[in-house]
């Protein structure tokens, strides 16, 4: 039988499927465990704000109505918080949808996007789906620092998008504000810089500057944000982007209507107002980062300095072995082989008790 979809299949062969972290339910089914600690997907172990849960309960009574397609109330609250206009904000079904919209809007078949490595795999998936190509520039070892000058020197006439994740997933490293500014000022016309700032709320480093300043200065920059991490709403799938009005207008032309459900919008709006929960979540991560760093140091291990709610470290042996042995103990992490680093693991910072359980289990395995 002749292949009626050769171009589609050719595109699919280039796409490496996204590999999600193991869910607690899946491990319960596979191993028959009940006491499971999930430290694999960079979620907030405290869960969402109580105000968000209350908002979900209230709006459950109205789910027979379609959601506000434009997310007016949430966009207005976000605009007020960031000191920008709501016309500079678009909501998405997680930041994944927004990455897809960007490649659909600004990438023609055969054109190029560039990014660093290792990083979030969704960039490549979205680029490949749009028929584009992607070029990677490795982070500098041993600390996984960015070298933006190398990217600048390798841009071509076909380059349209630059994806920069800061703090980067899976390394947790950031780009200082001054370096980002200098990089963007040197870019040739016609390029759009996508700054993925999913973990921005965790950064307390004074040398880190968020993209809002650049957007206010009308640079071709778009910032991706999410409610999945520090706000604890990963299961509701809601993210947003901030950019110059022209870019937001372009994305709205191809955005599906009603792309963000009403419960997600209500929960995000309530979560945004709960500053106490946000501070509590940040304190937990800062304390947990110290706990894990000290505990790993006692084993002779040194994680990459992270500014996010996870750590990336070289355990010196096959990370799949560590992953499997921890799984048997009811602890879910991410093995580094999916990022191209077979002796590394990525561990989400959990509660004090969860961190202790992980450290104790890892020490036993390494012995």
Describe the model:
It is a single chain. The protein has 367 residues and is α/β, with parallel strands linked by helices. The chain folds into two domains: 133 residues, Aspartate Aminotransferase, domain 1; 225 residues, Aspartate Aminotransferase, domain 2, CATH 3.40.640.10. Helix content is 41%, strand content 15%. It has 14 helices and twelve strands. A seven-stranded mixed β-sheet has the order 2-8-7-6-5-3-4, sandwiched between helices. A three-stranded antiparallel β-sheet has the order 9-12-11. α8 links the parallel β5 and β6. α3 packs antiparallel against α11 and α12 packs parallel to α14.
The CATH topology assignment of the largest domain is Aspartate Aminotransferase, domain 2
Averaged pLDDT:
93
Which residue ranges are poorly predicted, with pLDDT under 50 across at least 5 consecutive positions?
none
Span of the ends, CA to CA: 56 Å
SSE inventory with pairings:
Layout: H1 6-14, H2 24-31, E1 37-38, H3 50-59, H4 72-82, E2 89-92, H5 94-106, E3 112-117, H6 122-129, E4 133-138, H7 148-153, E5 159-165, H8 177-186, E6 192-196, H9 212-216, E7 221-226, E8 239-242, H10 245-254, H11 262-273, H12 275-297, E9 310-314, H13 319-328, E10 331-332, E11 334-335, E12 344-348, H14 352-366
Parallel strand pairs: 1-10, 3-4, 3-5, 5-6, 6-7
Antiparallel strand pairs: 2-8, 7-8, 9-12, 11-12
């Amino acid at each position: 039988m002749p292949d009626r979809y050769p171009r589609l299949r050719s595109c699919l062969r280039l796409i490496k499927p996204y590999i999600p972290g193991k869910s607690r339910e899946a491990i319960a089914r596979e191993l028959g465990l009940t006491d499971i600690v999930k430290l694999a997907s960079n979620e907030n172990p405290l869960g969402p704000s109580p105000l968000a849960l209350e908002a979900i309960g209230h709006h459950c009574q109205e789910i027979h109505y379609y959601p506000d397609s434009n997310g007016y109330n949430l966009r207005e609250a976000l605009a007020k918080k960031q000191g920008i206009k709501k016309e500079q904000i678009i909501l998405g079904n997680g930041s994944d949808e927004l990455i897809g919209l960007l490649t659909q809007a600004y990438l023609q078949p055969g054109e190029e996007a560039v990014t660093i490595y290792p990083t979030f795999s969704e960039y490549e998936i979205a680029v490949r789906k749009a028929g584009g190509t992607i070029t990677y520039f490795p982070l500098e070892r041993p600390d996984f620092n960015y070298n933006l000058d190398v990217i600048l020197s390798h841009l071509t006439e076909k380059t349209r998008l630059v994806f920069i994740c800061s703090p980067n997933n899976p390394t947790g490293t950031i780009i200082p504000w001054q370096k980002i500014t200098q990089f963007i000022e040197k870019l040739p016309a016609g390029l759009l810089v996508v700054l993925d700032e999913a973990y921005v709320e965790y950064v307390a480093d004074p040398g880190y500057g968020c993209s809002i300043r650049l957007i206010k200065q009308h640079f071709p920059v778009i910032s991706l944000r999410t409610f999945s991490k520090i706000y604890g709403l990963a299961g509701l799938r809601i993210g947003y982007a901030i950019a110059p009005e022209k870019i937001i207008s372009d994305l709205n032309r191809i955005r599906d209507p009603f792309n963000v459900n009403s419960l997600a919008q209500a929960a995000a709006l309530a979560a945004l107002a709960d500053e106490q929960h946000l501070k509590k979540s940040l304190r937990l991560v800062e304390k947990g980062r110290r706990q894990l760093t000290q505990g790993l140091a006692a084993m002779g291990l040194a994680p990459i300095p992270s500014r996010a709610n996870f750590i990336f470290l070289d355990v010196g042996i096959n990370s799949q072995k560590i992953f499997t042995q921890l799984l048997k103990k009811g602890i879910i992490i991410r093995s580094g082989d999916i990022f191209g680093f077979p002796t590394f693991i990525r561990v989400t910072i959990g509660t004090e008790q969860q961190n202790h359980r992980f450290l104790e289990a890892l020490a036993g395995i390494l012995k």
